[in-house]
Design a protein that fits this description.
Elements: H1 4-14, H2 28-43, E1 56-62, E2 66-74, E3 80-88, E4 96-102, H3 132-137, E5 142-146, H4 157-161, H5 170-179, H6 184-199, E6 205-215, H7 217-228, E7 234-238, H8 268-272, E8 279-285, H9 293-313, E9 321-326, H10 335-345
Parallel strand pairs: 4-5, 4-6, 6-7, 7-8, 8-9
Antiparallel strand pairs: 1-2, 2-3, 3-5
Helix pairs in contact: 6-7
Length: 346
């Protein structure tokens, strides 16, 4: 076998123009405006009018050091999203800083709030998500953990009936959205912005001190949501930072990762660079087999260049991009990121 097809596609991918990629020496503000506008188009756009949230409380559980509520809000007209809201009994301040916590592939939001797929309190060791929403609320943050479209309670009936909690509906839902000119990435980002809308309606969460943190596919959502909405003061992207060429295009990945035409505009570090001048923290496991550490380090260097340009454009009030290159795999690390969030939001 000569690898003819692989070589051909490699040339096609390398030859994509990336016409809105960051170039040092240019006008940072103009670049950011142009790329963010095109990026929103590539994602499929957002509704021009936001539906009423109409929040409804579904359950409330008292824990020793926090309160866990499960509620529903309207995201798109006619579509409801379950969200776990976790309220610390000893907040960092009042109103408290808040974090939107976004799960990756698995069995949904219950996987990051300390619950089993059926909603029981977990007693065994957590997986790659490491119950990071629980870690955040115990550090004094108000935490909102939404159920991403296609996971947990938000799967197609056929996938729910299969009896496998980790089975998702990503492929069919992503394909259906693509056929209507939308993308799963854009859909999940918009729904996450509706969670931010809800948090900003509460009196116990500080609207000007809200961040976002996500792992893997949730890292995509966290990074892209922060890139497009400046209400997020900072973002933690775990197990996702790389280049598209070295990660989702180098092996088979879930269809929810793909955004038509995006390489014609930019690479992943350019898109995450839209978060500048606000704070960005990267978690990178040195044994991550899905998002290779070598490419992650290259993306980090690229982001440092973008943040340097942001600093020149915004001489006051610029945060830095920071990376935790830890000994581990495709997983939440935690400690340094949680401390950084407290510095950014506390």
């Amino acid at each position: 076998m000569t690898g003819e097809i692989e070589n051909y596609m490699l040339r096609r991918l390398n030859g994509a123009p990336r016409s809105l990629a960051f170039h040092s020496g240019g006008d940072f503000a103009a670049w950011r405006q142009a790329l963010s506008g095109r990026f929103l188009q590539r994602l499929g756009g957002f509704p021009p009018v936001r539906a009423s949230l109409a929040p409804v409380l579904l359950e409330r559980t008292e824990r020793p050091d926090y309160i866990r509520e499960r509620l529903e809000i309207t995201t798109y007209e006619g579509l409801r999203m379950p969200v776990y809201l976790m309220i610390p009994k000893q907040p960092l301040s009042f109103p408290a800083p808040a974090v939107v916590a976004v799960h990756g592939h698995g069995y949904g939001s219950r996987e990051i709030v300390g619950l089993t797929p059926d909603g029981a309190e977990r007693t065994d060791t957590p997986g790659l998500h490491k119950d990071f929403a629980v870690s955040l609320v115990r550090r004094g943050f108000v935490v909102a953990a939404p159920e991403m479209f296609g996971f947990g309670d938000r799967r197609l009936i056929e996938d729910k009936l299969a009896g496998e909690p980790g089975r998702n509906s990503c492929f069919r839902l992503s394909a259906q959205l693509l056929m209507t000119g939308e993308t799963m990435a854009g859909f999940r980002v918009y729904e996450t912005l509706r969670v931010l809308d809800y948090l900003q309606s509460r009196t116990d969460a500080a609207p000007e001190r809200t961040g976002i943190m996500g792992i893997s596919g949730g890292g995509l959502v966290a990074g892209f949501a922060a890139a497009l909405d400046e209400r997020f003061r900072c973002a933690v992207v775990s197990g996702y930072t790389s280049t598209f060429a070295a990660s989702i295009l180098s092996r088979s990945h879930c269809l929810d990762n793909y955004i038509p035409g995006l390489l014609n505009d930019a690479e992943m570090p350019d898109l995450l660079g839209l978060i500048a001048p606000r704070g960005l923290f990267l978690e990178v496991g040195d044994k991550d087999h899905l998002f290779p550490p070598e490419a992650a380090r290259g993306a980090y260097a690229r982001l440092q260049e973008i943040y340097a340009a942001a600093a020149r454009s915004h001489p006051a009030g610029v945060s830095a991009v920071t990376a935790d290159l830890f000994d581990g795999g495709h997983e939440i690390h935690g400690g340094p990121a949680f401390a950084w969030l407290r510095e950014q939001l506390g």
